[in-house]
Amino acid sequence: MLGSIDILYLLDLFGVAVFAISGALAAGRKSLDLLGVVIIAVVTAVGGGTTRDLLLDRHPVFWIADSTYLLVIIIASLFTIWYTQYNDPPEKALLIADALGLAVFTVLGAQITQEVVSNKVIIVIMAAITGTVGGLIRDVLSNEIPLILKRDIYATAALAGATVYLLLQLTTLDPTLNIILGMLIVIGLRLAAIQWNLHLPRFKLED
Amino acid sequence: MLGSIDILYLLDLFGVAVFAISGALAAGRKSLDLLGVVIIAVVTAVGGGTTRDLLLDRHPVFWIADSTYLLVIIIASLFTIWYTQYNDPPEKALLIADALGLAVFTVLGAQITQEVVSNKVIIVIMAAITGTVGGLIRDVLSNEIPLILKRDIYATAALAGATVYLLLQLTTLDPTLNIILGMLIVIGLRLAAIQWNLHLPRFKLED
Amino acid sequence: MLGSIDILYLLDLFGVAVFAISGALAAGRKSLDLLGVVIIAVVTAVGGGTTRDLLLDRHPVFWIADSTYLLVIIIASLFTIWYTQYNDPPEKALLIADALGLAVFTVLGAQITQEVVSNKVIIVIMAAITGTVGGLIRDVLSNEIPLILKRDIYATAALAGATVYLLLQLTTLDPTLNIILGMLIVIGLRLAAIQWNLHLPRFKLED
């Protein structure tokens, strides 16, 4: 029987796989070579957690400590390359999977940061870094302005989910339930943003 | 009464605020959303000191150790967004403020590095990294070639100010005076470069 | 008489010089100022090893521990600026020198990583990071999609060389010979790729 820790670990691997697929697809749009695709997939999937670990001086960095992450990423990116030779990428399914990946990374990022830091503001920021920096590096390497700086409710969803997760810890709810509710906030905000095209106001300056 | 350490701390917060404003304005020119603007402001303001702290293995990183920095940045960027709805940014005042911010970051960066490293070349480089890397990351995220690699006497001013600051330590001058003189070198060079459009020679290769 | 460690050190300095030259030339194509050129040269030459050291928590970072690296980089980039005022860059010689630099960085990167990590996959990846990340940062700062993500057998050569170097350690060959053979694999693959225009298949998605 799976305990809640095993389920969190499986969710984490799922998040890594989803982000690797999103990285591989972005790389495909820039017509990189096969290894370039795998590199972008790796960076997208581990960039957020690696940045968090370096900032918190948490060593060994998570994917150095456990190679399962790299294995999952490589398999996911090779699968993506193979699959998209014959099929269109299932855009809608990927958006939902990406929302789930963001939710997992964010709440697990908050949990990991709590082990070493007590300041709530820092925990929320590290959670958002865990969820979003991989995609940000993916976009920088693809020579694009990072989507998370422009896109409808992405980093916002991570900040909100991490905040709710921390607030729930002040209640007497079961810790596992806190995790699930924190993730649901992220997923709900992302899917609502996609469905109704919600976005934060833009800030536009004349040159 | 404020001691010299308090004044340095206030100057540091001033530098952080100025760099946050410059980040927010750069973000506005790319029409990012509100959170994107705050993210760019944070990265611009803390990027240099964070890079220094990571390279020197100095933990906790300064803004993780003291959240006042983040608070100042968030206030400064929200103020910028609000202010520029009704007014043009005061370009000239900002250039002067930016020169002051560069001066503060550079000399305080040198001082912090001296606590852990004795090699003078490394101290000067870490001082320049503290002063310039935030703006460099801002430009990379905005999908531009970093200004400091092209612009008139910017990193140059930081290197010169840090060098003078270290040289003055060989004299019997008061340490506080060394700090002030180091900063004045940076400010003087920057303002002279702006006033008379000074720049280093360009290096131009044919493709 | 030089021992094998001294020769490795000299090779390492050679690699640093070659990468600094490649950085300076890339900067020249973007018409940066003189200090901008030196900054790009430094980042290209130390970016890979610095990333490796940060990820492995290996402090002090190699160029902070030994300023000879910076000295070599600054001399190499100033020489490049001076030389190209009067001559075309010797493209062919540079490609060969770059292959040698990649070989040195990769195998020495593997060797250094082995001192702190036993997992072979991580060692191979850190070797490739040591060899390629400097060039990747150079391209990001030059506002280009990194060449190593697109170019014929570059990161691939690093991965192959590091893998062969590790496999040879399972044999009874002399350790110095393993180093040489690992480097020859990298050099051979790079030169073959240049000579016959070999490249990995591209992965191209429709937008």
Automatic annotation (TrEMBL), chains A, B, C:
Keyword Transmembrane: yes
A Pfam short name: Gly_transporter
Location of the protein in the cell: Cell membrane
Chain ranges passing through the membrane: 6-27, 34-55, 61-83, 95-114, 120-141, 153-173, 179-198
GO cellular-component term (any): plasma membrane
Keyword annotations: Cell membrane, Membrane, Transmembrane, Transmembrane helix
Residue span(s) of domain Glycine transporter: 10-82, 96-168
Membrane topology annotation: Multi-pass membrane protein
Keyword hit for Transmembrane: yes
Similarity comment text for this entry: Belongs to the UPF0126 family.
Protein name in the entry: Glycine transporter domain-containing protein
Higher taxonomy: Bacteria, Pseudomonadati, Balneolota, Balneolia, Balneolales
